[in-house]
């Protein structure tokens, strides 16, 4: 039997938020990342991040505060490895998938699993996720004015 509630028929996309895990740019842009997570949850979509600290974590926090679904894709091989070796958070995630592929492998899985990617600040890891999404013809959004690679992408695309 099909559900009769029209809300249950709504298509939910997985939106990846990629961005800086550490540095001064996190201090400057954490409010924007939080609002981004809130907006994704409010729109009814699923937020996916690299299960890390920094701006992706603030996006996850914003999404959870709004009651959204948040999935983390971890570079670690297990829960124990995620918490003890990588020292990454577990709160604000509904599910964390442990890849065991370190950061570069995690980046590939994260962007491949997403329907769209939004870049907020970031460095080389964020740039890696951006190029994977771009080469896969995924919709990519760039939140400019947040420093880092997000403010350099326009020049790279010229």
Please characterize this protein's 3D structure.
Helix content is 42%, strand content 18%. The protein is α/β, with parallel strands linked by helices and 158 residues long. A six-stranded parallel sheet has the order 4-3-2-1-5-6, with helices on both faces. Strand 5 (116-120), helix 5 and strand 6 form a beta-alpha-beta unit. Helix 4 (102-113) runs parallel beside helix 5. The longest helix is centred in the N-terminal third of the chain and has 19 residues, at 24-42. The protein is globular, with a radius of gyration of 15 Å. The model has no long low-confidence stretch (mean pLDDT 93).
Work out the number of β strands.
6
Percent of residues in β-strands: 15-25%
Order of helices and strands: EHEHEHEHEHEH
Kindly, what is the distance between the CA atoms of the first and last residues, rounded to a whole number of angstroms?
51 Å
Rg, Å, rounded: 15 Å
Task: Kindly report the spatial arrangement of strands forming the biggest sheet.
Answer: 4-3-2-1-5-6
Mean pLDDT rating: 93
| Major beta-sheet overview | 6 strands, parallel
**Secondary structural class:** alpha/beta
Low-confidence stretches: none
Q: Tags for this entry?
A:
158 residues, 6-stranded parallel β-sheet
Condensed summary:
By secondary structure, the protein is α/β, with parallel strands linked by helices.
């Amino acid at each position: 039997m099909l559900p009769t509630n029209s809300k249950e028929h709504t298509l939910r996309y997985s939106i990846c938020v990629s961005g800086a895990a550490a540095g001064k740019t996190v201090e400057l842009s954490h409010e924007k990342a939080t609002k981004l997570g809130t907006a994704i949850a409010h729109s009814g979509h699923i937020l996916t991040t690299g299960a890390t600290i920094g701006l992706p974590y603030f996006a996850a926090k914003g999404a959870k505060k709004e009651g959204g679904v948040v999935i983390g894709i971890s570079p670690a091989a297990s829960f124990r490895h995620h918490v003890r070796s990588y020292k990454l958070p577990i709160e604000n995630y509904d599910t964390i998938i442990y890849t065991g592929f370190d950061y570069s492998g995690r980046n590939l899985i994260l962007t491949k699993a997403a329907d769209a990617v939004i870049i907020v600040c970031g460095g080389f890891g964020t740039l890696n996720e951006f190029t994977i999404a771009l080469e896969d013809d995924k919709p990519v959004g760039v939140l400019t004015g947040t420093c880092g690679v997000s403010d350099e992408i326009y020049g790279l695309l010229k």
